Amino acid sequence: MKLYIKYMVSTRCKMVVKEELRKMGLHFIVVDLGEVDIMENLNSEQREQLKKELLVSGLELMDDKRAVLIEKIKNVIIEMVHYSTELPKVNYSDYISEKLNHDYTYLSNIFSEVKGTTIQQFIIVHKIERAKELLLYDELNLTEISYKLNYSSVAHLSNQFKKVTGLSPSHFKQLKDKRRSPIEDIGN
């Protein structure tokens, strides 16, 4: 049985879900970002119990098909931007469409309707958050970061960075109060 879980965006979230499933005596096949495959079928009582336990950890068991699809889109983007060693060289629209096996226009329309922002804007905000993270690590220079995040140039990255944060990358780096956001709060 497949379950879909909202706000499941990190390895720590996956650990929490695995632990809750173990406590309930459920056996999982796969626990991935936003998606869990378990061997058993849940009855309504078990489903409610799991829902309650996940809520305690800030996670949410989902039923609505549109909400599930939105979460899948968000998880593909989060995985692509934050956890891939290199961003895909194809158009993001093609990448997302292929990953979710849906027409991009359909995905884009539902996402915009439900989230009030475009998929493209969601990707940009996440790429800038990733750039902030890489700037703080201080292991890569801006040219390397722009290449890693698939920007056409350092100027393009710098312009988007300034639009999203209000700061230039170099000014951000100098700040003492380095403002970063948890992944699950970005674009929500």
Short note summarizing the structure:
The chain is an alpha+beta fold and 188 residues long. It has nine helices and four strands. The two termini are 28 Å apart.
What does this structure look like?
By secondary structure, the protein is of the alpha+beta class. The protein has two domains: 2-63, 2-Layer Sandwich (Alpha-Beta Plaits), CATH 3.30.70; 64-188, Orthogonal Bundle (Arc Repressor Mutant, subunit A), CATH 1.10.10. Helix content is 59%, strand content 9%. The chain has nine helices and four strands. The protein has helices at 11-23, 44-56, 65-83, 92-100, 104-115, 119-137, 142-148, 154-165, 169-174, and strands at residues 2-6, 28-32, 35-38, 60-62. Strands 2-3-1-4 form a four-stranded antiparallel beta sheet, sandwiched between helices. α3 crosses α5 (104-115) and α6 (119-137) crosses α8. The two termini are 28 Å apart. 26% of the residues are buried. The model has no long low-confidence stretch (mean pLDDT 90).
